[in-house]
Write a structure and sequence with these properties.
This protein is mostly helical and 206 residues long. It has one domain. The chain has 8 helices and no strands. Helix 2 crosses helix 7. The longest helix is centred in the C-terminal third of the chain and has 46 residues.
Length: 206
């Protein structure tokens, strides 16, 4: 059971149409495996930023905050899933929120694998060979987009054009959610500052 669960994300890598179809209709995809891939991607990204070779690593390891790195991976993942689910419920999408989470997590696998490989590779290459490092990074990102595209199309049962439009609108919705979130926290901060100023004023008068 468990070996099959671990092998299945690799099956999706090379057979995305069949893989995502089985994920939706045969319940072969597991949410916990998807979240495990997300966790491993977070770990490998942190390792890459910290321990990549000096030829490609322009970060100062002493200034990196591992917790702060979560906002570049976990937050976009959550925003994408929430935005995609919110949007597709209005566009006759057949995907459930759990299926969106699972498919998106499985699509992250190329990024995780290449980050791990490139962290090791970067410590063995020269400046002239750095092109290969960046090629693998770009290739992994394009592979991720391809899997995400097929996963979105399959779980929602969209055609190609509607999938492209949906993914583009999902990015717009993500931006709107981020804007509203920042606006909310800004208003809360101002309200808290106003309440504290009134409290301090009353404390001085009493």
């Amino acid at each position: 059971m468990y070996p099959q669960m671990v092998k299945y994300p690799f099956y999706i890598l090379f057979h995305p149409f069949d893989g995502f179809w089985d994920l939706k209709y045969d319940n072969k995809g597991k949410l916990r495996i998807s979240l495990a891939i997300l966790l491993l991607l977070t770990i490998t990204t942190i390792l890459q930023r910290q321990y990549s070779g000096f030829v490609v690593n322009f970060n100062n390891p002493t200034e990196l905050n591992s917790i702060n790195e979560l906002k570049y991976i976990v937050l976009p993942f959550i925003l994408w899933c929430v935005s995609n689910w919110s949007l597709t419920t209005l566009m006759d999408g057949e995907g459930k929120f759990k299926e969106i989470l699972t498919a998106t997590g499985y699509a992250l696998l190329p990024l995780m694998l290449v980050h791990l490989f490139n962290t090791i590779l970067s410590n063995m290459i020269t400046l002239q060979e750095a092109t290969f490092y960046y090629f693998l990074e770009s290739f992994a990102f394009l592979w991720f987009l391809w899997l995400l595209f097929i996963g979105t199309m399959t779980i929602h049962q969209y055609n190609v054009l509607k999938t492209i439009v949906t993914m583009a609108l999902t990015l717009v919705v993500m931006g709107v959610i981020m804007f509203l979130g920042l606006l909310f926290f800004s208003l809360m901060q101002q309200m808290l500052g106003f309440v504290l100023s009134i409290y301090n004023e009353l404390s001085l008068r009493m």
